[in-house]
Amino acid sequence: MDFQFNLPSSNTDLLNSSGDSYYVKHLYSSSEIPDKLKVCKQMLFQSDPFYIFDHFDTYYAVIENKSTDAAAMKNLFRAFDLMYITVDKLGSSLAPILAATEPPAPQQRKGYLNLTKMCLFLSVNVVRKIDGNIVRLQQQQQNSQQKRKGNKQLDTLEEYPDWDVKRGKFLVQLYNLMQFPLQKLWNPPVAEENFVNMLCEVCYRTLEVLHMRNDNRHVVDSIFQIFGIAIKRYNHAINFPVRILQILRSTEHASRSIAYGINVLHEEFGISTVFAVLIKEIIESLSMGSADTLVSRYFSNFLTELATVAPKLMIPHLSTLGDELLGCESHVLRNCILQIMGDAVVGELTSEELPEDMKEARDEFLDNLLMHINDISAHVRAKVLQIWNHMKEEQAVPLSFQLKVLCAAVERLEDKTCSVRKQAVQLIKAFLERNPFAAKLTLVELQKKYNEEVEKMEKLSALLAAERKQAEELEEKWNLVIPKMLPFIEDIVKQTQDPPETQETYEDLVQRINTMLLEEKYQEAVSLVRKADHVAGNSELRLSLKEEEQCAYYLALLKSYIFLANGCKDSNEEFGTQIKTVKFLQDSIEFSKAISKAMPKLQEMLLSKTNSDVFEAVDLFTTGYMFGIKGTENGMRQMLYLVWSSDKEKRDAVSDAYKKVLFTTDQTGRTHALHVVQNLSRFLESLEYGHYTAMECLVKEWVHNEDIDGLIIQVLFERFTLKLEGTTENESRLALQLLIMCSYAKSSIASANISIIESIGLGLRGKQDPRIFSGCLEFLLNSIDQSSTTKYYKRYDAEYSIVQKVTEMYSKFFFHPRIPDFDQVTMKTLQFYYRLCQTPDICKYPFKYPDSALQQSASLALIRFMCVSSRIYLTFRFPNIIEPWTGHFYSTLHDENTELRLTAVKMLSHLILHEMIRVKGQIADLAICIVDDNDEIKNITQQFFKEIANKSNILYNVLPDIISKLSDSSSNLEEEKYRIIMRYILGLIHKDRQVETLVEKLCLRFPVTREERQWRDIAYCLSLLSYNEKTIKKLIDNLQHFKDKVQIDEVYQSFKLIISNTSKLAKPELKTLIGELETRINDCLKIREPINEDEERNSENDKETGRKARYSQKKSGKTSTRSNNRRRRGKQDSSQSSSAHESSCSSSDFEDEPPKINKNKQKARSKVIQETASSDEEESQIPRRKRGRNNK
């Protein structure tokens, strides 16, 4: 052989001759290639692989052909098939030569080296060429489809469906060949680096195009097995990380294949140092630029995939990854690292028998996860809560972290991002379902139990101290006894024979030993110890000891018997158990406190405008109630208010939740009905008066849907009539209330059972319990078919027996001194008279009731009844006529009586939401109910404002009246309560246009108010709004109106809060405006330079003169206009003119602005601005700055 094949750095290098290096002599054209390939095929099957020396140029021509048409691709595939067989023959030829113990002859070695390099060069390049052409055709196909939308897709690639399979076979062939000791072909036996790189490169390129699936995973196995051999045998460890990082940077889908392959290297080849290098390079790359780029996402995907398939390989590097990447800017990377930490804890670090270093690593991961619950990014906060939720479900959260995580989750219930709140609720739900403290006791009960156990622990501690003292005294006595006993012990140790058999038990012998020791008969005691030890079966063990060891053994036994004989006990174990019990109860109390803290926040979420908040809170309360968790009952009752929501999804969620709680049983038939009735009764018993109407609404729905079927109705009647064994009076009354609710939906439930209702309500039980009497009357009233369109139905005559019974019983109740629920009894009785009787008797037949006192009382009662009824009726029917008197409705909102305030809130809410009365400034009185002491009033009011916020611009239009009236000093509203009200109401304003206008109107209020409290209130309201570029510009444009007010510290802090909150995650344009606002506010804080007193006095005189002139000009200019307006309007209340200075904040200013602005309004607004500007001259009358910044 007279040539040497050198691997070219570029394929074109083979076209140039150089020394004895092989070069291509003939570059065949496309037309010549098919015939040349036929010749290659003939030579392949007729001879050995060395035919390649003569036909290398043919394959080279196929590779270098630039065409990608069908003919060129066909030639490539033919060349691949031929080279596959050629390499297969090469392997068969190399096997015996490389397996021999003696090295091959130089000429043979050189020939096989050239053959190996030439064959593999051609095979690798054919594969590379096919891959490149297919990728190019895919790109052309995609471009063509984009340009010709709707046309039939090209089917070019369908001609090569089996290429992935063929490429996989080639890689397996390459792996098999590399398992030979190919280095023997070189002298010295070290393979060329470019040869190894050439073989590995085809693997790297395959990773770039391969999408790993279950059916092609073996291909990835082959690729990384090749890498494993290259690293282990051919020094490829340096190039491997560099090339893998390049692929990870540019190819998203490769992360899964590479992660899987890294694990193959670790498990099959024991290669882990390469992974450490990869981690180091990834950290360096991400630290240099960690923004949310594709690179960050690709690296994150790789790390996550690797942690999934090889957590043990990942754990040693997690601390480094956390230290370096958890502080980076990319939230994607932080999520990735935290997810890996959570998976590592769940998968590998849950055992309590972990070594100390692994426990430290676990606690470090958990600390990181706990800390990032408060991450600056909402994406990370939500992700971390989700990770904790998964760990809780897998029981992977250590007890020491339970309370910390729960408290952090409770805090996140107030997060501004709904996704974070959602995950927080789900985590709290997981804690309720899997809490380690079985928190089914109330906080009071837990505290009582804790105090009892602490007392026990203290007693045990005192007992333990006494025992220790006794033990010390016995220890001293024992030391004195040892010399007396030792001679006897030495004697029995020398005895090798077992003691004689005895009929006594071990316990009998111990009792005798104790007696002997107390009587100081030590020789007999020692002898009995030997017998007892023999009876216990310890003779063989004792005899295996040396004599001195046996002496020590007997001394230890005798010491324990002496302590036992003297009544000395060891309570250490019991004391340790008691300490654990106390600690458990202490943790239970903290857990209960955390849950209790969460409940009010979760109840607030029920009233949220965000549906996900409502759904998650409903789900949590439902789950907690079903698990019997204390504290969830209030939430279940609170959910009833959502029955009135205008959002159907919320109503359905509530209905489904109650059906799940009340109607879900594992029984059928009558047993199911009994359980449902029990559930309904227990829930109804816990309701307050204000919840009844909502419960009635749900019951109606359940009756219509037949969730409450005939069998349940039958069980309710059995309970009501006390026919069901074991039914109590209270359960009977609850059954009656449920039947009344059902009869509202289906009147036949009452009309078909009138005789039963009458016999109970007007019988002995009705006489003994007025609640049964009034309930039965209401039940009878529901016998009237409400769905009927006719106004006429059968009524009882005044002489009818049922009417007489009702009258008789009511008369007795009326004069009873301590009748309970008298209002209810009276109301139902009057309703019975007016709805079921022909004509009421209380006032129509005075000759029947001649008593003057009775007639007066009856007349007064009738008048009051008619007044109350007419007020409601007239308001519904004639709202415009009644409107001047609606102030009387609002006045009851301040009444001391809670029931009256509750009724007023319900009535006004209903009238306003149904647009029966207009919303005016008096709604501020209703807003005060947001901070009412009564939770029900508070909740109804919050729900009301949330509802009107969804109705066009109603809330937005009345906001100025609310702000104006509540901040007025005459309202006497505490500042903290004012802030609670405004925080809730302004949180319902979300439209950018409304916020923009609101900012301007609030700024215009600064110059027309004169009290510092009002300035603080306005600034606080501004701080509650969300800001964009337009709203920040509004603040800058109106700075003149509040530049002197920022001297007050609270006002300044409000604007500072606006700046800091808006700066977070702001775009560059917005940040520029924020910087300008901050600069100008800070300029307002600077102290003015002192000026000459004469100049200051002249300046003040000029200002005063100018102000008077302007005032005179304005007054003269508007006199005629005002007189004309007065003539047109007639006489008006003089009080209206006194509110002119509030015009800048009137409700009309907050309404949606029309396309064209009224000129008169524009002039009025200009006047306000001018007067505001003139207020600068009055700065001497306004306090400069309370607790001033920069003031000396």
Automatic annotation (TrEMBL):
Gene3D superfamilies: Leucine-rich Repeat Variant. One of its GO terms (molecular function) is histone binding. This is Condensin complex subunit 1. GO terms for cellular component: condensed chromosome, centromeric region; condensin complex; nucleus. One of its GO terms (biological process) is cell division. The lineage of its organism: Eukaryota, Metazoa, Ecdysozoa, Arthropoda, Hexapoda. Its main location: nucleus. Residues 1092-1192 are annotated as: Disordered. It comes from Glossina morsitans morsitans. Residues 76-239 form the Condensin complex subunit 1 N-terminal domain. Residues 443-477 form a coiled coil. It is found in: Chromosome; Nucleus.
